[in-house]
Amino acid sequence: MNDLTMMISRYWWVLAVRGVGAILFGIAAFLWPDLTLAILVMLFGAYILFDGIIGIMDSIRYRETLSNWWLLLIEGLLGVAIGAITLLMPGITAYLLLMFVAAWSIVGGVLRIAAAIRLRDHIQGEWLLVAGGLLSILFGLALIVMPHAGILSLAWLIGFWAIVFGVVFVLLALRLRKVGKEGR
Questions:
Q1: Alpha carbons 163 and 158: distance in angstroms, whole number
Q2: What span, in angstroms and rounded, lies between the C-alpha atoms of 72 and 54?
Q3: Distance (Å, rounded) from C-alpha 66 to C-alpha 104?
């Protein structure tokens, strides 16, 4: 196993935490679909902010080893910016929130696919990162196409995306953990 693979597999648990967080958020969106828009905005803003901070930490951690660490940084900064805007402006309209989330999801998906392409020579199972990227892009496009969906539909759409995205991240984390154990 090369140094890059060993380093990435050492931090498998970070992806697992991100995945579990997304799954829990998705379940909450299904259990409480009658949440007011303000509460949903705050929860989603907090999740995006948390995910962005983790992304920035990953970019700093991998900057010495990855030539494209800046992709992780851009994704993290985008998440922090969108999360902060969402939290600081809770009265934001549902339409504007949808466009923020759609942009974050599409750009993040493209960046995940780019990262998977760079990692394909270093790890097996990079298709999980591609799948997560494609799901994020599809989610963002669905939000753009259906901006006038009711809050219940929005909650379910966000919940479904978060659960699927979380499962993909947990599967990728488990794959990286296995790669790390095989390399020891």
A1: 9
A2: 10
A3: 23
